[in-house]
Amino acid sequence: MSKNTLRWIIALMSVALMGLVAFQLYWIDAVIEVNQERFRKDVQTALTNAVDKLERQEAMLVAFDNFNSNIKFRSVTPMAPGNVRYIESTYKKWEVKSGEEPVEASQKVKKLPYSVQYQFESNEGDNIYVVQDTSVLVVPSSPGDGFSGFTFTSEIGDSTHFAVGQYKKTIQKAAQKTEMIQVALHELLFEKPTISNRIDPHQLDSLLASELENKGINTEYDYSIVDEESGKIVLASTNYQPKTRRHTEFRASLFPNDLLGEGSTLLISFPNQKSFLLQKIWTSMASSAVLLVTIIFCFGYAVQTIIKQKKISEIKNDFINNMTHEFKTPISTVALACEALQDEQVAVQPTFQKRYLKIISEENKRLGLQVEKVLQMAALDRKDFKLKLESVDINDLIEKAIDNVALQVQKRNGTIATEMKANPAKILGDQMHLTNIIHNLLDNANKYSPEDPEILVKTSNSKNGIVITVEDHGLGMSKESAQKIFDRFYRVPTGNLHDVKGFGLGLAYVKTMVEAHGGTIEVKSELKKGSTFEIHLPYGNEA
Known about the structure:
Elements: H1 3-65, E1 73-78, E2 115-120, E3 127-132, E4 135-140, E5 152-155, H2 164-190, H3 195-198, H4 201-214, E6 222-227, E7 233-236, E8 250-254, E9 264-269, H5 273-341, H6 344-347, H7 350-381, E10 389-393, H8 394-411, E11 415-420, E12 426-430, H9 431-447, E13 454-461, E14 465-472, H10 479-484, H11 506-516, E15 520-526, E16 530-538
Parallel strand pairs: 11-13
Antiparallel strand pairs: 1-2, 2-5, 3-4, 6-7, 6-9, 8-9, 10-12, 13-14, 14-16, 15-16
Helix pairs in contact: 1-2, 1-4, 1-5, 5-7, 8-9, 9-11
């Protein structure tokens, strides 16, 4: 897969991810908005219902207060048809003087074969209540005016089955009902006490709580009643904060059907409105958040895997190229030696035969070592190895390793200096692997020093072990390369030239073995100034 193809794939995946995230965020915002709108409608409906019930309860209380009216019948007697004076039903006490027609109206009742006269006792001392059908007629009566009673003649009709008692009962009910309604209406329409006297705070709070609960709103709330003209707070709940009044969006007019009297507004606020709304949709929010996090994680993991596979592919190709170069030289050398041995002139000269056979043997060993390195790293990768721990003197081990590579360094006019200050210098470790660690570091310092290598090896003691330092003044490396230097098959780039031999396995092996001994390794490097490798190895039980 080419780099451009990889970039296009990652770009398309990124666009798809951003679109999905944007859609999820839009959906979450829509859910919140719908929930808020539903909450506003439910609260407003609850307020309207509470105000309506409050007004109806007031009407019922006024009606019950006037239910026990003192309207009574004094007598029911037949009378001859005649002229009758009457007043239209009204709550207002019309004044009628003795011997005069009623102020409101008079009417002549036609002669009927049957009629009934009704007289009522006064309900308020000097008033006489008269019933006409379903209306109550009120006429004041003063002592000495000759109005010991007031008569009313009602048409009975031609029915011979008319029962006077039944008619009296009907008229009595009508009188009581009419008077009660008229008095109640008068109080409701014209006699309006102040809001503070009309509303019981406990009753209002109970109504609000009930209506809100019916709408599924069971969070804390505060309310207040504000006079519309003065703007002052007439009544408020215990925890009401005046500063929240300006931001209160839920309000309803109290007693909207009043004809007269002061206008008031009921305000309600919810201190925990946001948390309540979030609580109602937390399941959707949480599931959406989990989905988003999962998608983002999978996207990141997929991109990381693609990039990693791309790097592995590049490393594999580099490894194959390096292995080809490493194997090509000894194979070519062996091929040339075999071809020379087949020459008749060489065959008769034992000296040349021995020389070429030695070359074949050395190159064969070289091939074997290269193969062994690859197999060794495979075993290390599977952790299919076991350390043979024994007491090892680090200073002596380093001196022997230097002797093995000194000839190669000297061929390039290089030097290896030492500063062995570790005392005690013994640790518990595997001598073979520790030797390979030092050998790989020295070989690495020699290979990446372009000319006249200068290598310094130092040992010192730390609190818990020994510190081994290998310094060179070679090519050095960038910070990016320093972070990858211990990866398998990674080799520091040197351009298109294959002038540095190896598979990129040496430092990976070093790090694996150091960690297997319970130690750590660090590298400090700067381009064109060289590198410093520092190893910390614990004493074990040899301290």
